[in-house]
């Protein structure tokens, strides 16, 4: 047999099945085939592009009413999609199996109460078995299916339909419903459209090939087996369908047989069951059934699904005349199955899935009306019956679940409550000390589907953009969020009192009773002592915050203690440590980091005049300034430019600039540009400019110079908004005579600050000293100093002008601020031109001013810097600071004068002066290998900078091209220039020590991080007794998890997200941060809490009792099973202490564009150590950063995917410096599992508060009033008034 014949045989016999494989009984159909005339007329007009009527095939169609319905039907219509070469409602056709859904239609009409107006089918293909191998999921067949479903929806006026597909009809219908774009060939694509999942009540997949067919593996030359849109196991269309999280319907069921004679191989393809639709709620196996038996012999199951388990498929809640059909299934099912179903019903209430109290009543009364609420059902055949008693009260709904114990007639009653009907999901609270009956299998019952569609088909949905576990953005449907309540919505104006607020709420919380319970509850509010890390953290918070009445977790970090006040300095770029191991095909590597390595340099005296000479020699006309210019919205391009010298010519677009004076560069200071001036190290004068030989190749010399340059002065320009006063002071234009903002004199201020300095204590050490005793003595001395500071502060004499009442102080501040903003504070004698002064005066009254900010920095080669002696380092640092001094104090004013004049004169003025900047095209230049440079070990004296070399050009060169200048938008010249002090860099480059350790049976890398002894934060000195080797106090385990384990964990987290969006967990479990676009909202960050949660947002911390239990609450769901299993594994392998973790938080950064602001893991709440597991992709943890963590950082710790980070107890990293997650340290989806222990005294207070204060208050808000305001919204409104 030839290979072609073999392929055809596989295509026809195996993929489709021939008559010889079928057992058709030859019965003649009795149904009235064809569309009704009314429906035929409608569907033809609905979309004439596709032939739905199929007059060329006998018995090809079925369905329709005599006259088109005017209202929605009592039950959802059913649409059937047949298989390859089949006929929609056939009667035998060419071969016996071409009967389509005839038998099922007959059965549903006879036994299910359905009519022709409820059942619809057409024939989408040629219905010719000889053409079976030529049929694929083509645009024609997919769109025919799609438009037919939409046509039935339009004709019947139903909100949803049920879709039943068989064989190839399963995957055709899936593509039609889910939508998207697919390929038919390498060059042909088609788009189906948006998903119509919301219009599909249920999807039944009968014997489909969802993962392809084994027999198509090597028959890809046939259209049916195509790798684009056929049944090849590697089919692009099937892969796309199976990777999407979009469901085919609200409920999805799969029916299959391991004896399928067409699909064969027990339905296994690549170790997956190809007959089960991915994400099915349930799958039903019928052993012994053939491919067409699955289609024709499932009547009992269909009746059960349509009438009992899916009773909700009736648009009005179900026709009661269908209820007797339930008995048919009950007789069919065994006792164990019924018992399991019964327990599932109860359990959905126990564990709290998406049901509010109205939905609960509907579920019980309509979907299970054989369940009598007044009299418990006859459950003698059940081993452990559960009874439900539903109580309706004026302000709430209660459920009692009564469980009779086996040993006696005593009853264990577990009371639950459900929140207001305005919230999508319920909250259940256990108010008794009783435990749940041990016979209830929480995990297995939780995983079993339940027909909750009955209570959800009237819900509204909205589009939500989420990021999958493969970093793909998709849109899903989630229950619509209720609109946030506002004071305006409650008809309240201005700032009402709390009493007025609650009077406007119809179901207001009983806040007076709440406060009464709280007052007599004896709750502890002060947790500031008793645990050493608490005391450490307090010492490193801003002393100014000690007397403020804000929540302790929002107190600022003392930047003074970090010696991190940034200014211009010397930095180097460090290559990225990120590998994105196993996911580098999904995520980009993290960007390189910048370290301002001069943070440890010492001031150097006696060199000011020498550096002035060097400055004028390099930048004021005595030598050439060689520089490049390129676009850079941030520092990412600049870092690449500095890190890879061989790419510099390419990044600068193959052109190098030259100028004689720095002052001449005024016209190219523009937003989003980066200017890099290049130098080499010189043994005689520290920095050496280029010395051109104009007789040789100028291009080659310039490219060689910039590629070999080890030292660069970089200026990054960005449009920004700056403080007006700070700007005027920076350029010497602030009128000091009008500066009344300071009440204390400088002498008074310095005296006060001196008294508030906490020095590093000297602890006596003897032979009997231990680390613990040293630390205790050290803590005692520090506490004494802190008490002295606070006492001194209280005794400090404040000037008489400041001794006013609190309200008068506020008024005084407002008046002072108004004076600063309204007066003319610009100096007229500061060297500014008339145009510049007029612009600044025009800006009077504005607190801020639009500027072109300049970030000036010297960059060096990392290797050279680390090998240089301290003398060279100090000189380079001192020189760049001298450069900044000259630029800010003299050059910026002159440059702004020129810019404002040019803006007034116009383009011709700029063109005439552009000839002072030369541009050399450096295309087609060979990039040579860098020469070996000299070491930076020379010793310099001021005399080295007296007789410096000079150079002058003898030729004229091409002026700078005008495409660099925004000639059409000269308004940029009116932006004042401002040198900023913020830096996107870190001060301390940590030393990393890697050792091999064994955790359980796994050998992993342990990473420990250390400061350099001569370059560490000044407040680290107090930690030396406990960390004498300068340990940061954080270590990480890398390589503990396998890639397969990480993939499974990431899958669990993604499924957890989807459940959170769907309201699956208790309300405060998932706290979601949204970003709104024109058509939908997207998720930026989600924070999950399990076990216990803590209050962290500004609004939450403003609640009246936010300090109770240190802001800890227990109104969240318990950790899922996979989390508990993970903790057990970590405990067994000695990664975390046993019985230590009682709270798990999961921070999910969906697209990596929103990070987490700097914060302490407050020791008041958390016992240390604290563990973090990083998943999805590589990330970094930044310490000591400012401005939401974007800049001026202290140091960073790498967090590769799968690592476990431990913040050690009492350490510097955990207690003396805040940490954050910067958006720039993520390249896509990232998540952290944070494993912590909350102090027992805190959790006990949380339990007490929740049970006796918060719970009764919450229950007092339960109401059936349609205008009721949810409890959570009431708390938010109250907090907004109090904040």
TrEMBL record:
Name of this protein: Alpha-ketoglutarate-dependent dioxygenase AlkB-like domain-containing protein
Molecular function, one GO term: oxidative RNA demethylase activity
Region of interest: Disordered: 792-817
Leader peptide range in chain numbering: 1-20
Family, per entry: Belongs to the alkB family.
One Gene Ontology CC term in the entry: nucleus
Biased composition (Low complexity): 795-805
Keywords noted in UniProt: Dioxygenase, Iron, Metal-binding, Oxidoreductase, Signal
Domain of life: Eukaryota
GO BP annotation list: lipid catabolic process; mRNA processing
SUPFAM superfamilies documented for this protein: alpha/beta-Hydrolases (SSF53474), Clavaminate synthase-like (SSF51197)
